[in-house]
Amino acid sequence: MGDLTRAAQDLARARKVVVLTGAGVSAESGVPTFRGDQGLWRQYRPEDLATPEAFRRDPALVWEWYRWRQQKVAACEPNPGHRALVRMEAAWPTFTLVTQNVDGLHARAGSRHVLELHGNIFRARCTEEGQPRDFTAGDDLPPRCECGALLRPHIVWFGESLDHDTIMEAFEMAAACDVCIVAGTSGVVAPAARIPHHAASHGATVIEVNPEDTPLTPAARHALRGEGGDLLPRLLDEALTRITPQH
Hints:
Elements: H1 3-13, E1 16-21, H2 23-27, H3 46-49, H4 52-57, H5 59-74, H6 80-91, E2 94-99, H7 105-109, E3 114-116, E4 119-126, E5 132-134, E6 151-155, H8 164-176, E7 179-183, H9 194-201, E8 205-210, E9 222-225, H10 228-242
Parallel strand pairs: 1-2, 1-7, 2-3, 7-8, 8-9
Antiparallel strand pairs: 4-5, 4-6
Helix pairs in contact: 1-10, 6-10, 8-9
């Protein structure tokens, strides 16, 4: 019996499932990775633009970069891994999708309960009022709120803390889940990297889906090697054939 079959058996027995996704899932849709070969824009490094200091110094430049990123992401489509997670949410009574990605592809695929730890590239918020809203940067840069204050991308920048309520909900769901699936993440970015360890410490089965070993691998009961777009649909389909009547 292969690793995928054993993982599917554990998933089929679960009633509460948490999935954590990272950049690898989006990369399969063609979204450029943050630090990959396509990460350069003009002469700037992303790490020099994604900061509160950069925004204070030149908000128009930062927004120009985000508009460029929005255009890149808008040309991408959800892949079979995204769509498998939509089906998984429909099949399990308690399902939480936690993502480190900011591209909004999970929601575009149809996922409903998504905790976006690092924000969303298609949202903005007022620098005075703080309320997020859906937004695509237009011609006027930097854009402003109706109140007159600058809008900023609704993204967690370097040096900023994650939204307290969002990360707390992620850890609470991880503590209560039966299975935690980790897909396409390097397992090095805190605090997201601690979520599967938190789940395991509360008795959950951790299933890792990734092309190679990561720092999370020792916490995983099942380490499935390959791309999420291939393995997540296969894992789901096999689990559904074994699912118990109470689901």
